[in-house]
Write a structure and sequence with these properties.
Helix content is about 40%, strand content about 25%. With about 775 residues, it is of the alpha+beta class.
Length: about 775
Amino acid sequence: MRGDFDSMIGNSSASDSLTATQLRQRTRILKDHLARYAVTIGGIGVIIAVVLIFFYLLSVVLPLFKPAEIEPVASYRLSAASTDDQTLHLAMEEQAEIGVRFTRSGLAQFFFTQSGAVMTEEALPLPSDVTITSFASGAPESAIVAFGLSNGTAILARHIYQVSFPNDKRVITPKLEYPLGEAPLIIDGKGRPLRLLTAQSDQEQTSFAAVTEDDQLVFTHFAVADSFLDDEEEEGERERTSVELEGLPDHTAYLLLDAEQDHLYAANREGALSVFDLSDKGQPALDQRLPSITEGSKVTVMGMLSGGISLMIGSEDGRISQWFPVRDDSGKSRLTHIRDFDSQTAPISVLTPEFYRKGFLAGDTAGNLGIYHATAYRTLLVEPVSQQPLQRLAISPRANAALGETADGELHFLRIENEHPETSFHSLWGKVWYEGYSQPEYVWQSSSASDGFEPKLSLTPITFGTLKAAFYAMLVALPLAVLGAIFTAQFMAPKMRQIVKPTIEIMEALPTVIIGFLAGLWLAPTLETHLPGIFALLLILPTGVLLFAWLWTHLLPSRIRHKVPDNWEAALLLPVIALLTWFSFAISPVLEYLLFDGNMILWLTHDMGIPFDQRNSLVVGLAMGFAVIPTIFSMAEDALFGVPKHLIRGSLALGATPWQTLIRVTLLTASPGIFAAVMIGLGRAVGETMIVLMATGNTPVMDFSIFQGMRTLSANTAVEMPEAEVGSTHYRVLFLAALVLFTLTFLFNTLAEVVRQRLRKKYSTL
């Protein structure tokens, strides 16, 4: 009986034990499933997040490349317009609700652009015995118009629009004002009729140039007279200067003044062009003569782009040419042909520049309207708007509406959608010949104080800066991190490794803003002061370490060497490295005095022609290399330390030396992990922001010199995004920079994974 009882108890205990084992197994299986599901969900979530980020960036960037569109709104004839009263000029106010038409009879008609209904008419104060013989309009933003008269005088007027809000409703009241008074101004003292006229005016000066009936060129300038009693400008207090100029082309048909009133352009229909220098208003002179500017085709129209620097010339073959002054090797400015637009084939009949951008409208005799942007070298749209030739064009200040008149006197009001004409593949990635530059260049300069500024939005220099910063950072980090990982994993004493590896990994937690702060305020001035010592250190440090190793191995008695535990010898190098570094910096002034006449930076700049910036690539390489080293070191060391020990022992047992084992077994087996570590470090260097933001001059230059700074994609976005207007071209181009950075990082990571998988497959059989 007792045996049976004990047997029952034993069976019961075994049953309980089996149940507990099954419970643990089921719990482990459940945990495995939960971990697998959590990792899967997390991985899918990361992929979804990355894809969403990509499509969000893409949604902000895509409008940059949207083509221009025009929408016809209304076509009409002005109810009060006489069929024989020729239109001289059309213009619109900012809201594009009211237009103005100036006629040959001296009438200004203000009308609603939507319907053509005339609001009001205002006649110019013309003397009774004179007629209008010529007309000119100034820069679009000045709203200036000038009428040349048959007695050698001219009337200058400005159309303005006063906005009020009675009863919370916007009311626009148009009118004319006369900046120099209503009395006609004497342009030609001999009283000859003015056949051609051009004029520009601002608060300080007004200039007229006219070709008289007998083909004489007259330049007249009105300047504000200085008052010794009052700083306020008083009406009528203007100094007049008038001179006749020689050098006019035969049969001159076109006359233009630039907005700064420093240059005068005169051309005939055959393409002969004369350029006059007006910088000295008392003694203007002929500066340049060009025999032909249209390559055999006749000139049909001339105009100036916003800012008054670029001259646009339309020709009979439908080509539009851009010219602007370029300094030659002697420093002399010469009008130079820059680019052509040939999207239209009919003769160009009218050119109208945008107010604040380098875009323009062009109409031709076939009734086509073209929308262009000069800097982007981009034809945005060419579309027919009428069967009749376009003779007059006006664009609203916001460039969102156009008003055109055809040869039969019909007006066409159009809405324009053209938000981002400044961007094209050419302007973003190619060399662009900007106004004032001697040759095409890659330039990033997104803003300026001038309304006529030409945006320079090339992503090439900042992409170059990103790769340059990453290159110098990896040049510093890669050998130190990988070689350090090799020594730590394969040769360092275990106790020493337990100290070194966590210490280096803790370095990764150091905020990059602190590294950048120290690099900009301490490291950069230190390197500038001890520049010869830095380069001396590159020779002294490796030479000194090798010399110390030789002395330790060959000259030091063995009884002393054996007192140092195996694989702890590296600790002895710390004071040696510190001493050699101190010595290099200590002899820096001596080297600078002996080799560079006491100033290495001056020697680099003047004797070698190498510009030097205090915050340069050397500073970035050291600072960002310091930040990248922990990432590469930690992953590479784990890969090396994880190589199966039986492979290493087997190699050593077969007679291979430790170095042969390292090169032919360990490195090959760990190569997927080492390569992944390098690529992740490179990805971090490419995307680093705060260090390059604080340790470089943030100058977007295309120079690979170690003594020059750079601007990276990430730093550029961080600097300029807070100042960018939401939805503007600048704003969207910054998002495009972010998209380029995203793509670069994605490509690096993808390449790393592909190569890592191939290396793993190749060496998995070891």
